[in-house]
Protein: GH16 domain-containing protein
Amino acid sequence: MAPLRTIGRSLLAALLLAQVEGKPVATSFSAAVNAASLPVPIAPTAVIPTPLEGSCRYHPGGGTCPEHAPCCLNGYCSDDPRYCSTGCEPKNSWKESSCFPQAYCSNIHEDFGQPRIASSKTFNGNPYQFDFTTDYNTEGVNVQDSKLKISMKLDRIPNSYGRPQGLGSVVSTTRFIQYGKVKARIKTGSNSPGVVSAFIIRNEDPGDEIDFEVVGRDPTEAQTNFYYRTPPDMATDLIDYSNTGKQSLSTNTALDFHDYEIEWMPEYILWKVDDKVIRHVFRNETKDDVGIDPATGQTRKRYPSSPARIQFGIWDGGQGSEGTAAWAGTPTDWSKLDQHYEIQVDYVDIQCYYLGNETQTWPPAGHGPTKIHDGPYFTPGLDNRHGHDVGNSFYNEQENGVHPYVPFYRNPKLMIPIGCLMGLALVVVGTIEVVRRRRVSKVRWS
Structure:
């Protein structure tokens, strides 16, 4: 496989584009999709600095989040359950237990007849209510004819290279899998150079990933890859891109559905297409890492082993950096105004190696905000993901009309009344000045 490791949690949030100019690079999937929507140019080798532990980046008071807005996400503090869910930063929150724990794997066969999918903007963090979230570009995801359809259309904003680029979408599971089998029947959307269709297992921290990708440069070829501890903000020159595999399938994957399967076990990974193994990797044959694995007492291996979410998505690699475009094919065809590309998932079957607790209440005792309420919340950095701090709801509005950690002039509900008060003040000041000058004038002529 080649590129996919650029951001974009969100998002999200404060997201990184990390691509290598002039040669094919591998990029993380969530990163790449989100990077396509970033309106602000970021140098290809730029790295967004990781905030120091014990400090939520944009918390004006400094340090960790306060108790009444305990969860840190994307550098912002809130008591919104979404902030306490996936991506919550335990060491930068009020307490590490302020963040919800990872929801562990549950066996599921989803045929998308009536799927439980939540937007990342509405997901309350409860994996017992929703099985999937739409993480980027919710408008690009829909379910039709019992198929999950994830589309990419031309973005209104040129990318950081000044080129028109598609705005991709991502759907993720709400639960984390640590070893097991994931099988999905997929029709790729890679019917133009540059279009990348992806089925991956990935986490942002520490950054382990196993993936299937098909690029529009050759939709008859499956690209497989795995990464070990490569978080989105990792410098590209530190990422190991040597674990790529390319396998010819002798069929155009964009024309029909095929079964793709990742069998991830503690000692090996198998990639399968239509029940045929096309690649295998054994843990004991991977490179050595620094330190000892406490589970085995042996030298740690550079083998993905941490819990991760399953993701499906599509993104535009043909309009990016020179290396990414060469890997994905270029240029991506955006000649038609209504042009769009779509990856379809007929079903996904997840068989867990370790199972979660299906009867557990959520959040588990001792986790999440100490005070649960129905809102409204203030959610900076989440309701608007393009770098603006203005949310559309407020924390404990009944008790605290102004969120104590957001400057008043960024509070939308205060902008109009404050503007009126400032206008009135100007009128009063102006009137006083006029009266003063008239008095001065009378004194001079008397």
About this structure: The chain is about 10% helix and 25% strand. The domain at 101-352 is CATH 2.60.120.200 (Jelly Rolls).
